[in-house]
Amino acid sequence: MLLQTVFGWSAARAGWYVIFIFIGNIGIKPFTNPIIRRLGFRGALIASFLMLILSSFGLALVRPHTTAIAIMFLALVSGVGRSLAFTSYNGLQFTDVAPIHRNGANTLTAVTQSLGQGLGISLITVIIHIFRHGMTLQGAYAWGFVVLGIFAIVPMIEVMLLPKNAGEAAIN
C-alpha cells in the first residue's frame, strides 16, 4: 500500500517490487531444512526474526527516490525471514505433540496463525492511522514499519530463552 498510496505508483509498478517478498518466500524453501539442521530450530528462528526486524526498519527508511535494488532487497529479505520463521515454527511446534493429536494441533495452529496475521495487519493499520494525524502519510507508514520491527523483537526474545537443543529430536 505504501508504494501506491504514498509514492503514487501504479499497481503494476508496485507489484514488481512486492513480488520480491514472494521470491524470498519461495526461494528459501529448498534451503530451510538444511538451515534448520545446521542452526537448529532456535538458531533458525533467531536468524529469521533478525531478518524480519532489520527489513522492517529498512522499509521504514524507503522513500520515492530509494533505489529499486534497495527496495527489492528489503522485500526479498522480508520474504526469506517470514518463510524461514513459518517453516521453523511449524516444525518445532509439533515435536512434542503425539501423532494422535497432530490433526487437532494442526487445525489449532492454522487458526491461530490466521488470527495472528489478521490482528497484526489490523494493529499496524490502526498505528498508521494514529500517526497520520500528526505527520505525513509517508511518516505514518515509516512508523508503522518501526512498530512492526519492534513487535518482532518480543518473539525473538522468547525464542532466545528456548534451550539451544529445542526440537533436536525432530531434526535428527
Automatic annotation (TrEMBL):
Primary subcellular site in the record, as a coarse category: membrane
Membrane topology: Multi-pass membrane protein
Keyword ATP-binding: no
Keywords on record: Membrane, Transmembrane, Transmembrane helix, Transport
Compartments it resides in: Cell membrane
GO molecular function, one term: transmembrane transporter activity
Domain annotation Major facilitator superfamily (MFS) profile: ranges: 1-172
Pfam families from the UniProt entry: MFS_1 (PF07690)
Record-linked InterPro entries: MFS, MFS_dom, MFS_trans_sf
Transmembrane residue ranges: 6-27, 39-62, 68-89, 110-131, 143-162
GO cellular component: plasma membrane
Name recorded for this polypeptide: HsrA_3 protein
